Amino acid sequence: MFIVDPAKIKSPQIPDAGDPTVTVWCNRQGALGALSHIVDKEHWLHILGVASFKLDFLRNAVLAVPWIGAIAEVIKDEFQSTVWPTFLQIQGFEVLHASAVIGARGVVAFCAPSETGKSTLAYGLGLRGYPVWADDAVVLDFLPHVIQTVALPFFVRLRSSSALHYGYTETETTGGRVRCEGYRMENALPIMAICLLERAQTLADNRFVRIERLNAREALLRVLDHAIYFGRQDQGRKRRMMQQYLSLLGQVPVFEVCVANGLERLPFVLNEVEQRIVAG
What's the pTM? Predict the structure, then answer.
């Protein structure tokens, strides 16, 4: 697994977002963020403003063509968090946009849109003795008798407000974030639970967190909202993806975790999540 910046590799023209052969991803604000397509049998993933990535299966590599002005650190982050997981998804794994920690019986994944607090929650649990397993991408490997998560290199990225809460200084933040080197204890571990993280201004009875277990039918579409994949055009791969997620939800509990806004409430949220899910 490696990333190359090849001066002689020419990226194809950025495709039209309205082309039915192109898959489009938007950011939380609804703005266009990335495009993927196949050109002359080559798989390309364009992260707008960062780089165009060619997924080279013969060389087991990702080749990056940086956009003008792109920062090398940002290119590496996109490779680790999005591009390499997408590469693996094409080859048969499933990938969730999630952070994760190692709980008492396996990995607990926290799925949420960007800036919802999944990295903040995982980092806080890490300080309580539950090692952070992933930040942004949880890769699932479907074996005959177990569904496990595969270890990937990663950084934990905390927004400045969360970093300050955890004791970092303003001078330690870069671009409003702190990047903490991830660490790894195993190559693969079973998946223990999936949490769908949501934020709310207030909760009933002045609670700081509400945790509810969902049945598989309720969870399916909501979990699929957090799936990372290359495209929708391959019908065979699409069917396999659905089958594997149905298998996942038949074996792994899914919880809705609704958290009241405010970092001052975080210790109470960590207590509840630890006791009811992670330490179980």
Answer: 0.89
136 phi-psi bin (left φ>0, alpha ψ -120 to 50, beta other): left
- SS3 at position 85: helix
Domain identity same for 275 and 230: yes
Distance of alpha carbon 234 from the chain centroid: 22
Domain, as residue range, for 43: 1-91
First to last CA, the chain: 35
Q: What is the CATH number of the domain that holds 121?
A: 3.40.50
Q: What is the pLDDT of residues 203-220, one digit of tens each?
A: 777 788 999 999 988 999
Clarify whether residues 192 and 245 are in a common domain: yes
Query: Between the CA of residue 11 and those of 50, 61, 200, what are the distances in Å?
Result: 13, 16, 42
pLDDT tens string 10-53: 778 888 888 888 998 887 677 888 999 998 888 999 999 999 99
Q: 217-233: buried (b, 16+ CB within 10 Å) or exposed (e) per residue?
A: eebbeebeebebbbbee
- Comparing CA positions, the residue from 57, 20, 22 lying closest to residue 38 is 22
- Please give the tally of structural domains in the chain: 2
85 & 142 share domain: no
pLDDT over 90 (residue 246): yes
Is there a single domain that holds both residue 78 and residue 110?
Answer: no
Count Cβ atoms within 10 A of the Cβ of residue 28 and give its class: 0-12 exposed, 13-18 middle, 19 or more buried.
Answer: exposed
